[in-house]
Design a protein that fits this description.
Number of strands: 2
Strand order of the largest sheet: 1-2
Number of helices: 4
Order of helices and strands: EEHHHH
Distance between the termini: 8 Å
Low-confidence stretches: none
Radius of gyration: 16 Å
Largest sheet: 2 strands, antiparallel
Mean pLDDT: 86
Number of domains: 1
Oligomer: single chain
Helix content: 40-55%
Structural class: alpha+beta
Length: 106
């Protein structure tokens, strides 16, 4: 049975995304988004932001808050990054949330 199970390879422990152009907010400059594996409580809190809204907007709101919690960046800054950078960050974090069997075999 163990031969049928293939675990998804875990993502790198951290990911850095260079933000261009840099974002100025409340006297600070944000240009390097550093992400790490989220804690289960952070995922739960971020999922709570969806408020039963399973639309694209709800998913984006959840990811905005998760990226903010994991990176330490304020939500208003996350809302100003390019969508390609946002999607890269969200995809990295989603890799941790979707951990499990790679083949669907049990």
């Amino acid at each position: 049975m163990a031969d049928d199970m293939q675990m998804v390879q875990a993502p790198d422990t951290t990911k850095t995304i260079i933000i261009r152009p840099p974002i100025s907010f409340k006297g600070g400059t944000f240009d390097m988004l550093v992400l790490r594996e989220p804690m289960s409580g952070e995922v739960r809190k971020a999922e709570g932001q969806m408020r039963n809204n399973l639309s694209n907007e709800g998913l984006r709101l959840m990811n905005t808050h998760l990226i903010s919690m994991v990176s330490g960046w304020p939500v208003p800054v996350i809302e100003q990054i390019r969508i390609s950078d946002f999607n890269e960050a969200a995809a990295y974090l989603q890799n941790f949330i979707e951990a499990g069997l790679g083949t669907g075999k049990i």
